[in-house]
């Protein structure tokens, strides 16, 4: 890692408006109004224009585990450059450690069942996804729109559910202070009941991203 987890959390905590979930179980933060409306609108248009069925690691045979669609957001697009710069300034994480930005779109009835963003050590797909760049460290996720009903993100081991809200950032450390994975970061992108839900996700790795 390019910076210690402690220094990242401290930097995040120092940002105006940043709220840390009051728990010793995980480093998890929320920042309302992070992404301006015009940028949310641009990112939604990019996701709508170019999406594919979402995939999962360690497939458990449940075809309904992650029913959303995913969009790979090309780094050269101006809206993508803009949000990437904002994220780098916020976290101070080295962009070289970041995976390419992704968008996720959930139509009514779609969800992403409880999962972790880190790849499970010893899991079937661990080598495939972690050999080059290491495991995931931090997740940054931004809700791009308000959702008419449903679509919350539930962290059941932290007893906390976040409602989608245009521009709101959630970010958390997928690791424990000692470097192991933090199972308490398990989360569920709950079913959208009415409307469509759009988010962007930015994941960081233990080593520079090598595709
Ligand atoms: O859509 C959500 O609320 C969660 C998305 C998520 O967990 C993911 O993309 O890894
Ligand atoms: Fe996730």
TrEMBL record:
<feature type="domain" description="Fe2OG dioxygenase">
    <location>
        <begin position="97"/>
        <end position="206"/>
    </location>
</feature>
<protein>
    <submittedName>
        <fullName>2OG-Fe(II) oxygenase</fullName>
    </submittedName>
</protein>
<dbReference type="InterPro" id="IPR005123">
    <property type="entry name" value="Oxoglu/Fe-dep_dioxygenase_dom"/>
</dbReference>
<keyword id="KW-0560">Oxidoreductase</keyword>
<keyword id="KW-0479">Metal-binding</keyword>
<keyword id="KW-0847">Vitamin C</keyword>
<dbReference type="Pfam" id="PF13640">
    <property type="entry name" value="2OG-FeII_Oxy_3"/>
</dbReference>
<keyword id="KW-0223">Dioxygenase</keyword>
<dbReference type="InterPro" id="IPR044862">
    <property type="entry name" value="Pro_4_hyd_alph_FE2OG_OXY"/>
</dbReference>
<keyword id="KW-0408">Iron</keyword>
<dbReference type="InterPro" id="IPR006620">
    <property type="entry name" value="Pro_4_hyd_alph"/>
</dbReference>
<dbReference type="InterPro" id="IPR045054">
    <property type="entry name" value="P4HA-like"/>
</dbReference>
């Amino acid at each position: 890692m390019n910076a210690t987890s402690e220094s990242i959390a401290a930097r995040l905590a120092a940002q105006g408006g940043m709220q840390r979930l009051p728990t010793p179980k995980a480093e998890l933060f929320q920042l309302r109004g992070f992404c301006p409306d015009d940028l949310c609108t641009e990112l939604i248009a990019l996701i709508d224009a170019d999406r594919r069925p979402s995939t999962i690691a360690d497939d458990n045979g449940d075809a309904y585990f992650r029913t959303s669609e995913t969009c790979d957001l090309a780094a050269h697009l101006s809206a993508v450059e803009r949000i990437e710069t904002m994220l780098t300034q916020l976290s101070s994480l080295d962009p070289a450690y970041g995976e390419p930005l992704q968008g996720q779109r959930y139509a009514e009835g779609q969800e992403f069942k409880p999962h972790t963003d880190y790849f499970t050590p010893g899991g079937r797909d661990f080598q495939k996804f972690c050999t080059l760049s290491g495991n995931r460290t931090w997740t940054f996720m931004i809700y791009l729109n308000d959702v008419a009903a449903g679509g919350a993100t539930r962290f059941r081991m932290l007893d906390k559910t976040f409602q989608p809200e245009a521009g709101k950032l959630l970010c958390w450390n997928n690791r424990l202070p000692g470097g192991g994975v933090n199972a308490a970061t398990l989360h569920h992108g709950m079913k959208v009941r009415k409307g469509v839900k759009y988010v962007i996700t930015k994941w960081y790795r233990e080593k520079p991203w090598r595709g």
